[in-house]
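COMPLEX REQUEST
Ligand: NAP
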Amino acid sequence: MIKIIDGKKIAEEIKRELEKDILALAKKGVIPSLAVILVGEDNASLVYVKNKERVAKEIGINYRIIKLGDKISQEELEKVIEKLNQDKNIHGFLVQLPLPAHLDSQNILSKIDPAKDVDCFHPENVGRIFAGNPRFLPCTPAGIIELLKRNKIEIVGKKVVIIGRSNIVGKPLALMLLAENATVTICHSKTKDLKAETLQADILVSAVGKAGLIIADMVKKGATVIDVGMNRDNKNKLTGDVDFEEVSKIAGAITPVPGGVGPMTVVMLMRNVMIAVNN
Ligand code: NAP
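STATUS: Structure written out below.
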């Protein structure tokens, strides 16, 4: 029997846990605060930012959005970041990506105070994951590991194959699963024989952004399949990278899209805000 990994339900559980912690903080007179810098009017970014606002407010985190025009210069944006670095009323903040092409994202991210870097993109925080001494955990990979653990899916000694090597998902997830004692393989667009790799996986993670990339004959019987992909079909319906219907007949457990990894990302961000309160 296939197990459907219900990210929506687990995200709700974590929200309730966070609410309790937030209430305990409120009794000490502390309200956790998150700020989000949004540059320009990218449609997908507007949706993500709204979603963060909804969840923050739902669980009692103060939320501030700072909307900036898409012509803002690197120096002006750095000044906004410096102001938030100094602002005692903001515990954590992030710059919604992607930024307009004239801005240097890596440089901008490196200006955030690492203690307030709740997206965990500052080089110091990335380096701390590499060194096995994390301050924050990046939200999507942390959400994936939480999904595995809360569904009692064994990680130790398991062969994990991750498709995708981005700084946001694939690379940090590989390091974090290594720290959980998995044996990890990372695949990408230049991998010679993707199917030969994926067939080895006890846990297969697809973080590519190509609908229909993972079909049933690429999956080992009983494997856990985690679909990070978010793609829109020709009817604008959200789909993952995995052929859910066919792969469900082979896999032991699978995340749906929507309702799998997506809802976890935003609650992991809120968990990082709670960590930032203590930084
Ligand atoms: P990205 O930066 O575009 O990286 C995509 C990765 O896929 C790259 O490493 C690329 O290889 C690899 N790739 C592309 N085509 C491939 C192929 N045919 N075979 C094997 N590998 C291939 O994307 P990302 O930011 O990591 O996001 C990936 C997907 O996850 C997107 O759909 C995104 O929307 C989604 N996402 C979801 C969440 C969530 O919360 N649910 C969060 C973040 C991202 P190269 O490195 O060789 O180019």
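REMARKS: The first strand starts at residue 3 and ends at 4. The first helix runs from residue 7 to 27.
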